[in-house]
Amino acid sequence: MRILVLADIHGNWPALRAIVERERFDVCLCAGDLVDYLTDPAPCMKWFAENVQYAVRGNHDHAVAQRILPSSLHGFRKLAYITRPINWKALNTLQLKLLGRLPTTQQINVDGLSTYMVHATPKDSMDEYLGPDAEAWTKRMEGISANLAIVGHTHMPFVLDLGHMTILNPGSVGQPRDGNPDAAYAIIEDGKIELHRVSYPIDETLQQMRDVGIPAWAIDITATVLRTGGQVTKDEMLKYGPNDISEIETTIFAPLEPET
Ligand SMILES: [Fe+2]
Question: What's the rounded Cα separation, in Å, for the pair 200 and 226?
Answer without folding.
Answer: 11
